[in-house]
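Researcher: I'm preparing a figure for a lab meeting and need a structural model of a single chain. I don't have an experimental structure, so a prediction will have to do for now. The sequence is pasted below. Please return the structure as tokens so I can convert it later.
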Amino acid sequence: MTEDPLPDGARTERIVRMGESPRNLREALRKSVWIVIWLVFLSSPVHDLVSGHHTPAATAAGCLGLAAFVAVYLMLVFRHMGKAFTGSLAVTLMVLALGALAVALCLTLGAPWLGLFVYVSVACGTTLPVRVSYWTIPLTAVVMLLVGLHGGEEDARNLVLLVVLIGFAMTGVRQLVRTTVELRKARATVAQLAANEERLRLARDLHDLLGHSLSLITLKSELAGRMLPDHPDKAAQQVADIEQVSRQALVDVREAVTGYRRPRLAGELAGSQVALTAADVVADLPAEPALDGVPEETESALAWALREAVTNVVRHSGARRCTVELVRRQTLDGPVLELSVEDDGSGGSSSAPGNGLTGLTERLEKAGGSLEAGRVRHGFRLVARAPLEGGRASVGASEDPVGSGA
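Model: Understood. Here is the structure written out token by token.
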């Protein structure tokens, strides 16, 4: 398959956009060619003018009238085709002028000029509101028949169906042009929304990744500082852990930026154990969670929830103990996997949810899950649920532990 030598931007510049005014002379010429092709029905009036059947004065008047007719028609179609009717008086007057010129030229110069009503019908279909076009197009055909009684009744009968069909066809073309314009705008809107969604994803990932990693680095730095005078070997071990956490954080950030990071519950449980232990928090976590059959999106969402919850425990709670449970529940909406993180700390002073919980709620909702977080009798509890099948997570009655406590 041969590749297109032109980039997308260059191809776009070569296309005359439907329903839009020309952006340069080249586009104007292309649009003019497309419109001028349909001036074929002027062949009869032109042939009538050059045939010599009229006096010089009538021929001159016919040329001026035909020039005025074509100018008004091109102005209407060139500038207003495919655009919404704005109630402009100028458009209405130009359509009326077009009809008046057609009537005057046909009555004065004869039946060969009846083809002008085709253009009147096209103008009605392309510039007037659709509802107005539905009755002005048949009205144009009726006026042509009445004018044809003056001396070209047979020609008028031959053209009546053409006038009606072309007029209504142009209403369809007009709607197609407008739909194309709307689709182009919708595509631009979708692209903007996708960019916004990507920015939100990146913000959530960076917050979750850096919040957890930097909290752990801070804790280990404080430990190393306290150990340095009396226990340099242990301080060196803490510094080595800081280096390892920093390197992993760098890898995680790179993966988050490229959109490939999907954390696993097993890895987050291990990381949570390290973070809680470093903060002198007694950790009660599942040892080996059984995650067979768990959808990747569900596991990823709950892994993010675990990371955010443990980060909040380490940074804000002042807790001495943290319990993590992972259970399967059968609900009315189907099976769900539920993650519960509870601590005995006092929590933060603010009652409003922070950026972490807000981003976590959005992440779980995107996976079809839900989040509950709030004070309990002896601390703080966060419960995240995500479906094991299609559907939305909700609280159910039956449960099945996924992993044993450690």
